[in-house]
Amino acid sequence: MGFYQLKEEAFDITRQIFQFLSRDPVLQKDQQVFQTLYTNRELSLNKLHLKPLSQPR
Fold first, then answer.
1. pLDDT at residue number 16
2. HSE on the CB side for 38, CA within 13 Å?
3. Distance from C-alpha of 27 to C-alpha of 16, rounded to nearest angstrom
4. C-alpha angle 21/37/27, rounded to 5°?
5. How far apart are alpha carbons 4 and 46 in whole angstroms?
6. Cα gap 32→25, rounded to integer Å
7. Dihedral over Cα of 15, 16, 20, 23: its sign
8. How far is CA 17 from CA 12, 21, 27, in A?
9. Helix (H, G, I), strand (E, B), or coil: what is residue 19?
10. Is residue 34 within a helix (H) or strand (E), and if so which, with residue range?
11. CA-CA distances (angstroms) from residue 33 to 3, 7, 27, 28, 44?
């Protein structure tokens, strides 16, 4: 029975940490910046793949 009690307490602590992190404004801003950078990277890669490797003369 002790194992399950410890497991439940660990779950509660983990849940509280994630709740705190989801409300952290600095972390939210960092997540937005990451999303923007990732999207820009993906767009750049797609643009490179669409370009011909050598320009016709």
1. 95
2. 6
3. 16
4. 15
5. 49
6. 11
7. positive
8. 9, 6, 13
9. helix
10. helix 25-50
11. 41, 35, 10, 9, 16
Query: What is the largest distance, in Å, between two alpha-carbon atoms of the chain?
Result: 77
Cα–Cα distance between 39 and 41 in angstroms, integer? Answer: 5
- Torsion angle of the four alpha carbons 36, 38, 40, 46, in this order, in degrees rounded to the nearest 10: -150
**Are 27 and 21 a contacting pair, CB within 8 Å?**
yes
* Structure token pair of residue 32: 């937005």
Secondary structure E strands in the chain: none
Q: For 10-43, what is each residue's pLDDT tens digit?
A: 899 999 999 988 899 999 999 999 999 999 999 9
Give me 40's structure tokens. 């820009």
Residues 6 or more apart whose CB falls under 8 angstroms from that of 47 comprise none
